[in-house]
From TrEMBL:
It holds the Pfam family Inhibitor_I9. It comes from Cocos nucifera. Residues 394-483 form the PA domain. Belongs to the peptidase S8 family. GO terms for biological process: proteolysis; system development. The lineage of its organism: Eukaryota, Viridiplantae, Streptophyta, Embryophyta, Tracheophyta. Residues 38-126 form the Inhibitor I9 domain. It comes from the Eukaryota. This is Subtilisin-like protease SBT1.5. Residues 1-24 form the signal peptide. GO terms for cellular component: extracellular region.
Length: 794
């Protein structure tokens, strides 16, 4: 699962298993395989009145289409039976999905009511201590004001669009004290194998599953799935319990991280929409899940999955999340685990809240002791008997233990079946990180007879290390330790090592840090919107795990536990979903943009040592491309003072400023827009962060004028003054310097004049500097980061 670094499936591995060079399907099948799933966006306002509902209309359009496409193609392969709609989308998205031949897709494109015909795409999936770290509870477990003010999020429904849920886990128990779901809730508990309709309760108020897109795309490979909302993977149970799991005392994992496990909004309701299956999650099913969640009345949708960015008018998930936001639903998404490289961030639409991962103040240290006495510290869990503390074992480099020259390229990464048992038996193996999912490395070493493993970072991952529950004792080490261990192996043919696993370490400094794997900006799709928006806990998060699923998620892993510790922006996203549910419970009238604004403007960019947030990868100061506005601070978000609100009109104006055509805007927003009446610049979207891009011309000064409108959310009269931190080499002037609000709902505008001298950059290059504008009335601090990028055109 690319979005959880524990389960990353690299492409070559994927291909090796799922595509054989000679297709078992015959010639005939080659024709069928030209048929694909398409998602069709439709203008429902053009529905002829003879059709009583859109479903009849779509269905009939499809029948007519397939007979006329038949006459064009004169193909014998197509069965002339009734064509089926895979899914009908009615709420967040308007349209349907169906299996079409390329000719049919082309014909449909020319239909006057059709806005877009887009191919289906796959996406990948991307806490005892985190509520304490977030300041939601005090050290003696007493709730602070946000939890108290919101009755722990009761009467708010969080929808998880994910791998389903394990309903009998104690994190989802109805403890008898929960209120019934809100009267507006219209979800259902759809039964299926191992999931009776009675699986739902007052905690789990809805459970549904969407698989038609997957069945077609998997082409017969869908055998081992459970076609019900039951989570047979683990990811969905983990994310759901992070957002809103009930209090579970005495939770721990292999004896680590013991304590009371609780979701962020422990009294909020959960609804599970299972859209991810054994080989991935397909857009056609994902938008069916989002559509259903909105129709059912969810308040928050949590989406911990993603893929590479495409323009918004071609991104059906982005389009349906705009539909959700239009219905007042807050949508949080994971930023992706493709860091630390630049411009790797996914889920970048300005109407969703994009969440990167931070490392909290808890670590799981483990030492590697070399035969020469050198002690190097990494991270790891070990639950079994601790023979490694006293006994040392011979150490071998995986790249020197390749089974044959055929595996030489993949053996350093401990790919399945690449290691020679004769070289590995009874030894600890040092495997390079990357290329193969980390749990698979452990399995490969164990199968070859190895007794332990070191997962060694390369120069890209540097010092960002992730502990995993490997199938054998294992320690993950950073690049500098890995270089020392490799030098030791090379120098000493009789190299031996010991491991020492330590207890859970808390109150680590500095914290938080930006997690190495967390995807980074700038946002390739729309560089004038800073993404990710915020970071939240995403490294080594303890949360519920389904019975019957191995700790590493691998089928061969027979180890079971009630809780599991995993990492990823997938884990960060539901923290924000939970906090958004609390804010929604406290402020029923806030829009999704107002909730996001309060999270962003109160986020902090300094750590528990008082220094600027550090990047775990290199240990240097990080910046807004990695953490956006900063790390969330839920208690402060309850009373932000001011918010930067956004309406559908604002998003439309922004789309115009991006030169999207009127047809594309209609596809995205399902309405006609006359862009010539809108004159805003792309950085004028009333966003809580500010990103200005200046095209270098080498003549004279560069200038941008940024407009913002702040709205008071406090009853009392207030007077705010601005404090500017200028980015290096940039002059920023704010007008006016003082904003006065009479009370709740009142708006005031201001402008920021951003100017710089020319900067000499090679063609095609860019450079960014960061600053901020902070409004304060003495009680509230409303901070917006400012990113200024100079870009030299090619
Ligand atoms: C609730 O769902 C049912 C069945 O799907 C539907 O008939 C009804 O109109 C829905 N009610 C609301 C208030 O949306
Ligand atoms: C937690 O476990 C300990 C030791 O097993 C036990 O004494 C205690 O009662 C348990 N607490 C709860 C709340 O279950
Ligand atoms: C791998 O084997 C080569 C050749 O024997 C040796 O030079 C090298 O040091 C070994 N590498 C490690 C990391 O052990
Ligand atoms: C931190 O250091 C790395 C490696 O030198 C560098 O690539 C990165 O840009 C630095 N980060 C920042 C924010 O300067
Ligand atoms: C939109 O087009 C105008 C005119 O060609 C250009 O100046 C502007 O930079 C474009 N905007 C974006 C965001 O690409
Ligand atoms: C868009 O607005 C402009 C300016 O108001 C007007 O001249 C033009 O006719 C409008 N275009 C359409 C298609 O309505």
């Amino acid at each position: 699962m690319a979005f959880s670094p524990s389960f990353h499936l690299p492409l070559f591995f994927f291909l090796a298993f799922f595509l054989s060079p000679s297709s078992p399907l015959g010639d005939d099948a080659a024709g069928i395989s030209a048929s694909k799933i398409y998602i069709i966006g439709v203008r429902n306002d053009l529905k002829p009145s003879v059709f009583s509902n859109v479903e009849h209309w779509y269905s009939s359009t499809l029948q007519v289409l397939s007979s006329s496409a038949d006459s064009h193609e004169s193909s014998s392969r197509r069965t002339r039976g009734k064509r089926k709609l895979l899914h009908v989308y009615r709420t967040a998205f308007h349209g349907f999905s169906a299996v079409l031949s390329p000719a049919e897709a082309e014909l449909l494109r020319s239909h006057p009511a059709v806005l877009a015909v887009l191919p289906d795409r796959p996406r990948q999936l991307h806490t005892t201590r985190s509520p304490l770290f977030l300041g939601l509870v005090s050290a003696d477990s007493r709730p602070n004001s946000l939890l108290a003010a919101t009755d722990f999020g009761s009467s708010v429904v969080i929808a998880l669009v994910d791998t389903g849920i394990r309903p009998d886990h104690r994190s989802f128990a109805d403890d008898g004290g929960l209120p019934p779901p809100p009267s507006s809730w219209n979800g259902s508990c759809d039964p299926g194998p191992s999931f009776p309709a009675t699986s739902c309760n007052r905690k789990l108020v809805g459970a549904r599953f969407f698989y038609d897109g997957y069945i077609f795309n998997a082409r017969g490979g869908a055998g081992s799935d459970v076609f019900s909302p039951l989570d047979s993977h683990g990811h969905g149970t983990h994310t759901a319990s992070t957002a809103a799991g009930g209090a579970a005392p005495n939770a721990s994992f292999l004896g680590y991280a013991t304590g009371l496990a609780s979701g962020i909004a422990p009294r909020a309701s959960i609804a599970a929409y299972k859209v991810c299956w054994a080989t991935g999650c397909y857009d056609s099913d994902i938008i069916a899940g989002i559509d259903a969640a909105v129709a059912d009345g969810a308040d928050v949708i949590s989406i911990s999955l993603g893929s590479g960015v495409v323009p918004l008018h071609r991104d059906t998930v982005a389009i349906s999340t705009l539909g959700a936001v239009e219905h007042g639903v807050f949508v949080s998404t994971s930023a992706g685990n493709a860091g630390p490289g630049e411009s790797t961030v996914a889920n970048v639409a300005p109407w969703v809240t994009t969440v990167g991962a931070g490392a909290i103040d808890r670590r799981f240290p483990a030492d590697v002791v070399l035969g020469d006495g050198t002690v190097l510290t990494g991270v790891g869990f070990h639950g079994g008997k601790h023979v490694f503390k006293t006994s040392s074992f011979p150490l071998v480099y995986a790249g020197n233990a390749s089974f044959s020259s055929f595996e030489a390229a993949v053996a350093p990464f401990c790919a399945p079946w690449s290691l020679d048992p004769a070289a590995v038996r009874g030894k600890v193996v040092l495997c390079e990180r990357g290329e193969v999912p980390r749990p698979e490395k452990g399995l490969a070493v164990k199968k070859a007879g190895g007794v332990g493993m070191i997962v060694a970072n390369g120069p890209t991952d540097r010092e960002g290390i992730i502990p995993d529950a490997h199938v054998l004792p294992a320690v993950s080490v950073g690049y500098s330790a890995s270089s020392k261990i490799k030098a030791y192996i090379s120098a000493d043919r009789a190299a031996r090592i010991r491991f020492i696993f330590h207890k859970t370490q808390v109150e680590v400094k500095p914290a938080p840090m930006v997690a190495e794997f967390s995807s980074r900006g700038p946002n390739l799709q729309s560089p004038h919107v800073m993404k990710p928006d915020v970071i939240a806990p995403g490294l080594s998060i303890l949360a519920a795990w389904p019975d019957g699923v191995g700790l590493t998620g691998m089928k061969t892993d027979r180890r079971r536990a009630e809780f599991n510790i995993i990492s990823g922006t997938s884990m960060a996203c539901p923290h924000v979903s939970g906090v958004a549910a609390l804010l929604k419970a406290a402020h029923r009238d806030w829009s999704p943009a107002a909730i996001r604004s309060s999270l962003m403007t109160t986020a902090y960019a300094t750590d528990n040592m008082g220094q600027d947030l550090v990047d775990e990868t290199w240990g240097n100061t990080s910046n807004g491309w990695a953490f956006g506005s900063g790390h969330i601070d839920p208690e402060k978000a309850l009373h932000p003072g001011l918010v930067y609100d956004l309406t559908m009109d604002d998003y439309l104006e922004w789309l115009c400023s991006y030169n999207y055509s009127s047809k594309d805007i209609r596809t995205i927003a399902r309405r006609d827009v006359n862009c010539s009446e809108k004159a805003g610049k792309p950085w004028d979207l009333n966003y809580p962060s500010i990103a200005v891009v200046l095209e270098q011309s080498n003549v004279g000064n560069l200038e941008a004028v940024v407009h913002r409108t702040a709205m008071s959310v406090e009853k009392e009269r207030s007077e705010y003054t601005a404090n500017i931190k200028e980015p290096k080499g940039v002059k920023v002037v704010v007008e006016p310097e003082k904003l006065v609000f009479d009370g709740k709902g009142q708006k005031q505008e201001f402008v920021l004049k951003v100017s710089t001298g020319p900067v000499n950059l090679p063609a095609g290059n860019s450079r960014s500097e960061f600053g901020s504008v902070t409004w304060s009335d003495g009680k509230h601090t409303v901070r917006s980061p400012i990113a200024v990028t100079w870009r030299q055109p090619d």
